[in-house]
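Please, structure for the following, as tokens.
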Amino acid sequence: MASAPSDPATGTDTVVCYCKMPGGIILRAGEWYTRTEGGVGGVVREVKEWRQTKEAFTVAGPAVPYGQHAKVPVVGGYAMTVGVPRDLWEAWLADNKESQLVKNNIIFASPKVDYAGKARELEGTKTGLEPLNRGHDPRVKGSERLETMEAA
């Protein structure tokens, strides 16, 4: 099921996110901190925890329930979410720069809406979550055989 995007942030310091994850993604930013925790028998230990420091923002994905229209524009298979707070995007990107979502261009951002050119260039990018094509899909064992049988 596709996730509904958050309401666009107001102000001029926003970006447009392009996301190819079918259900979208929730952007969160935070920090790690260390706290002291008491245990059994008076044992004290330090525990690292992560705490959210900025309000979360939902970026829409391109999946749409059957019979419904997309809530955001979809360009080249990427859902376009306008009004993502720039500081949240930059913090999330810094925390996730090694993520396959970022490295494989499954999600990226632009300061302007007219940046759909990159989304069109990356239209062939695969997430691995696309519906199966039984006739010609490397994830389906024997799909080449099915394709040959259908042609006959």
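Helices lie at 86-95, 100-103, 116-121, 143-151. The chain has a mean pLDDT of 80.
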